[in-house]
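Researcher: We're teaching a course module on how sequence relates to structure. For the next exercise, students receive a sequence and then see the predicted structure as tokens, so they can try to spot secondary structure elements on their own. Here is the exercise chain.
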Amino acid sequence: MTELEQLSLFEIPSSKNKIQDREEIHIEVQEAPYVEEIVPYEIGDTVRVDPDKLAEKDVLNYNYLLEYLRKKGIVKKVIKNPTLQYEIAYGDKIAFLYHTDLTI
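Model: And here is the predicted structure for the students to work with:
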């Protein structure tokens, strides 16, 4: 039977033999997958709410987006921070919508 030595919480083995007895850990570094850069819509672009994204929303956001679902709006302002969003004019109404909720 091998005799084991108890180490304190802060003690690091100084002997290379103690380290060599342990299993080596190999870590592979993978490149991050290619992520398509978000290209914002520009002022004057015509956009609409993406119906495919509607099902993913909570009740509050769902009801807000539902009002603009089959309507085309015009981008009046681009707000880049903290999250890419737009001020969109739907006739005499103004809506603030996230980039992820819109399509052309």
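Model: If you want an answer key for the exercise: Helices lie at 16-20, 51-54, 59-66. The chain is about 15% helix and 25% strand.
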